[in-house]
Amino acid sequence: MSGGEIQGQLIPSNAEEQQRCHNMGITDLNKVFYMDDFCGGDDAIFAATGVTDGELLKGVQFKGSKATTQTVVMRAKSGTVRFIDGQHSLTKKPDLVMQPE
């Protein structure tokens, strides 16, 4: 995989958030940030876990007392791409168990 771009812009919603930007040294709130602004070197790691099914990852699947997830982890420096299939016990995480309505 190669190529692609990500852009972002800070849009504070109140004076407190504007002050936080200023405290971090961001004075131009109209600035568009590009990928090199977020991460300028090759020592970067990207990870994403599917929530709903998509082109790259499966979404969370609930099967009885377990849930499964799929995650991709990419490391820029080595070019490594890993896919991780996770199995999660919902009985050990009772706050996450979906309750019937």
Which key terms come to mind for this protein?
101 residues, alpha+beta, Fructose-1,6-Bisphosphatase, Chain A, domain 1, 2 domains, four-stranded antiparallel beta sheet, 13% helix, 28% strand, extended
What does this 3D model show about the protein?
This protein is of the alpha+beta class and 101 residues long. It folds into two domains: 1-40, no CATH class; 42-101, Fructose-1,6-Bisphosphatase, subunit A, domain 1 (Fructose-1,6-Bisphosphatase, Chain A, domain 1, 2-Layer Sandwich). Helices cover 13% and strands 28% of the residues. It has helices spanning 15-23, 35-38; strands at 45-49, 61-63, 66-75, 80-89. Strands 1, 2, 3 and 4 form a four-stranded antiparallel sheet that branches. The longest helix is centred in the N-terminal third of the chain and has 9 residues, at 15-23. It starts with 14 loop residues before the first helix and ends in a 12-residue tail after the last strand. 0% of the residues are buried. It holds the Pfam family FBPase_glpX. This is fructose-bisphosphatase. InterPro entries: FBPase_class-2/SBPase. Pathway: Carbohydrate biosynthesis. It catalyses: beta-D-fructose 1,6-bisphosphate + H2O = beta-D-fructose 6-phosphate + phosphate.
What is the CATH topology classification name of the largest domain? Fructose-1,6-Bisphosphatase, Chain A, domain 1
CATH superfamily of the largest domain: Fructose-1,6-Bisphosphatase, subunit A, domain 1
Structural class: alpha+beta
CATH class of the largest domain: Alpha Beta
Low-confidence stretches: none
Distance between the termini: 43 Å
Radius of gyration: 19 Å
Helix amount, in percent? Answer: 10-25%
CATH architecture of the largest domain: 2-Layer Sandwich
Estimate the mean pLDDT confidence.
Answer: 89
How does the overall form come out from the CA principal axes?
A: extended
Helical stretch tally: 2
Return the string of H and E elements: HHEEEE
Number of strands: 4
Whole-number tally of structural domains: 2
Beta fraction: 25-35%
Main pleated-sheet profile: 4 strands, antiparallel
